[in-house]
Amino acid sequence: MMENLPEGKWARAGIVGSTALKVGLREVQHKVKRPFMSAERQQEDKQSIDDQNAQLIFNALTQLRGTALKAAQMLSMEIEILPERYRKELEKSFHQVPPLNRVLVRKVIQEQLGQPPEYLFSSFNDVAFAAASLGQVHHATLPDGMAVAVKIQYPGIHVAMDNDMKLMRKLAPKLPNPQTVLQSLEEIHARLKEEVDYAHEAASTQWFAEHLQLEGVHIPKVYLEFSGARVLTTELMAGQHLEAWLATNPSQEVRNRAAQNLYDMMAISVRQLQHLHADPNPGNYLFHADGSVSLIDFGCTKQFAPEFVAILPELLQAFAMDDQALTLSLYRRLGMDHHPSSDTWYHEVLRPFAQWAALPLQEPSFDFGQHSTYTSEARDIIHKLAHNTSLDKIANDFIFFDRTVYGLCKIFERMGAQVKARHHWLAAGDSL
Q1: Would you say 419 and 260 are in contact if contact means Cβ atoms under 8 Å apart?
Q2: Which terminus of the chain has a lower count of CB atoms within 10 Å, N or C?
Q3: Residues 367-412: pLDDT tens digits?
Q4: What is the pLDDT of residues 374-384, one digit of tens each?
Q5: Which helix (H) or strand (E) holds 352?
């Protein structure tokens, strides 16, 4: 159990600095040895270094916890922005963060709500049942008997956030695709400023409960009188996390229904509400026996610009129609100007990505069971696009839209589900 967190600026900087130094030294050692190795041995040595560096970075971020770890989690869910070895290490942080000391749990509740937990709740389990980067969650019962989930933020998280992001930017050059990582970190920083404020999360949860009226999708009730800036109390939602639910062997029909509910939630949120639950960590979805789903953790939400929402369906259709002129014109309208590095850039670099992105729209229903490698097939495509882009920048709205869609597709693959996506993006009668 972790007794405390390194809250001081210099203590946290020391962890990142020593990690960056170790990573850099390994890279230098590899470059020195390369001329004396066979091609096969070079590849083996590089893979070994990647494994060691990924482990080093994961260990450092686990020590820091907080917004540094949360930012890394978000990067790990970007469309193949990091190599497999780095992403696998970072994905451990969704489930392997040590819980907070019980004394600190009581301290946070006392400071935020004015009384210790035994005076506020008829029962409170001081052993967390879930722990992640920014906080942990406890079972409790309200005086009226209502079962609730009490989320408690780790002390010092909100104070350390800006400095943590500076540290992440210093670590970025040690990661693959550093320029793309740096741009992603800017958008991630903006969302984290909201996520460390549980009052903002409470308001977001209530907003989605009011506006996302979708059969088959459940959103928890918020209890404001038992919540504050660092404590959030919500209705305890039933349901199972993905792997536990799949272990019950739900039928194909139920798996399809659950996946469709998640996709409908995403598409309707973007197109009609211009807001999105933008944290596609599988742990943020609870699945029910009838195929309905519950959304939890509204700390990371994204509001989209009206221009992006209006242009997005046109862009997806341009992708599907393989219309180069229209695609680049729509990119320019989104502020993504194009400076071709060669006459063949579109066909060799952007077109493969466009065809991949549009594939689920080519049929009325897309079978992720038959296309179980859909997301993994994107790896080389995305890496090539990241390294050979001739676009000035990526529109910020794409960062969270892409990572949400990609995260959902990975879940659909795991479910082996069939999903109807086309009707959300094309008007009735449109054809590809």
Answers
A1: yes
A2: N
A3: 999 999 999 888 778 777 766 666 666 778 888 898 899 999 999 9
A4: 998 887 787 77
A5: helix 351-358
Q: Are strands 147-153 and 231-235 parallel, antiparallel or unpaired?
A: antiparallel
Which residue type is seen at 305? A
Query: How do 217-218 and 293-295 pair as beta strands?
Result: parallel
User: CA gyration radius for the chain?
Assistant: 23
Q: Are 70 and 133 in contact (CB under 8 A)?
A: yes
Output DSSP code: residue 348: I
Token pair listed for 266: 């995403």
- Residue 99 confidence (pLDDT) above 90: no
Report yes or no: 331 and 255 within 8 Å, Cβ to Cβ: no
Task: Look at the pTM and tell me if it is higher than 0.85.
Answer: no
Does 1 score more than 50 pLDDT?
Answer: no
User: Could you tell me which of 75, 88, 73, 78 has the C-alpha nearest to residue 407?
Assistant: 78
Distance from C-alpha of 92 to C-alpha of 102, rounded to nearest angstrom: 23
CA–CA separation, 211 and 205 (whole Å) = 10
Residue identified by tokens 């052993």 is 127
